[in-house]
Amino acid sequence: MTETVTPIAAGTPASGVAALPHLGVIRVRGEDAASFLQGQLTQDMVQMKPGEARLAALCNPKGRVRASFIACRRAADEFWLVCSHDLLAATLKRLSMFVLRAKARLDDATAEFALHGLVGEAAVSATASADAFIAPLPPADGVARALWIGAAGDALPAGPTLTAELWDWMAVRSGVATVTAPVADAFVPQMLNYESTDGVNFKKGCYPGQEVVARSQFRGAIKRRAYVARVDGAAQAGDDVFSAADPEQPVGQIVQAAAAPKGGTEVIVSLQTVAVQSGESLHVLSATGPALLAPHQPYALIEV
User: What is the pLDDT of residue 262?
Assistant: First the structure.
C-alpha cells in the first residue's frame, strides 16, 4: 500500500530547542574507559576522538540489542552514553558486571546534565564549549538535528522552544531508532539498520553477540529491516505488525512511535523485507487493525 509522504520541513519550525527528559546519561571514566567499552559495544570506541559522538549498541549474547546509545567521547578518559532512561538502570548494572579489574568507573550522571534536542538553525549554529557537548544526529527529511548535553542549570542554546512530542516525531522521521524497554533484546542491529547508520564496526574486536552480528551481515541472513511508516491510528513500541495475506504470524514489530502533527502515528518499524517488497497490506496488532502505510527508508543501506 502506498501513500504520499509529506516532508517534515514543509510543516514544522525551522529552528528550535526541545527538552529531552526521557533520556539519561551513563558516565564511564578512567584510563581504561575506552578499552572497557571497546569490549562491550558495537562501535569502535578506541578510535573515537574527544569531541566525537557515534551511534552504538549493547547486545546480548544472541546478538540482540539490549540498549542503544549516542556514545560521546568527552575526553581521552571519559565517555557519556546517552540512552533511553527506562533502560538506564538495567544497562548500568549490566555493564558494571564486566568492569572487573579494568580501571573504569561507571555511574548514572543524568541528574548532573541537561539534555536538549536542537533542530534546524539551532543545531547548525550551536557550538561545543568547556561545559557543553554537541552530538550531531541523523537529519529528519533534510532538517539538521543535534543533541546538546550541558551541565544542569546552564544557559541553553538560542532558539524557540519545541515540544518533546515534535522532537519525538522528528526522531522517528530520521529512521534511526532509539531502543526502549518494550523492544529491548528484540532485534539484531541490522534489523534496525544500525550497520548503515554508523552504529556497528565490523573491523573491531569481540563484544557480546559479535559473532551473531557478523554472521548476519556476511552470510546474507538479514531478513528484516527498519522502515519509517505511518499508522492510520494509534500505535506504540512493541506492537506487532501483520499482513492481510497471512494473519496468523506477525511480519514485523514497531520499534519507535510518535504522534504525527496531522493525525495518526509515525513509526519506525522492523519488517520482513519480503512483506514490503510484495506490497502486502500491512496492519498493526492484527490483520484487520490500523493500516501501516508507506514504509520507506530515508537513507541508503550499505552494500555487503
Answer: 87
In angstroms, rounded to a whole number, what is the distance separating the alpha carbons of residues 156 and 132?
10
Question: Could you tell me whether strands 65-75 and 78-84 are parallel, antiparallel, or unpaired per DSSP bridges?
Answer: antiparallel
Examine the pLDDT at 14 and tell me if it is beyond 90. Answer: no
**Residue 86: Cβ within 10 Å count:** 14
Angstrom distance (rounded) from CA 156 to CA 150: 8
DSSP alpha helices (H): ranges in the chain? 33-38, 85-96, 121-125, 164-174, 210-218, 273-277
Closest CA to 165 of 261, 255, 232: 261
Domain range summary for the chain, segments of one domain joined by + = 8-181
Mean predicted confidence (pLDDT) in 167-175? 97
**Alpha helix locations (H) across 103-229?**
121-125, 164-174, 210-218
Question: For 43, which DSSP code?
Answer: S
Architecture of domain 8-181: 2-Layer Sandwich (3.30)
Q: What is the pLDDT of residues 124-134, one digit of tens each?
A: 988 877 778 99
Cβ(228)–Cβ(296) under 8 Å?
yes
Convert the pLDDT of each residue in 152-161 to its tens digit: 888 888 889 9
Residue with cell 502486502: 280
pLDDT at residue 12, as a whole number: 60
Q: Would the pLDDT of 303 be above 80?
A: no
Q: Quick one: CA dihedral 162, 167, 169, 175, positive or negative? A: positive
* CB-CB contact of 171 with 205 (8 Å): no
Q: Chain-wide mean pLDDT for the chain?
A: 93
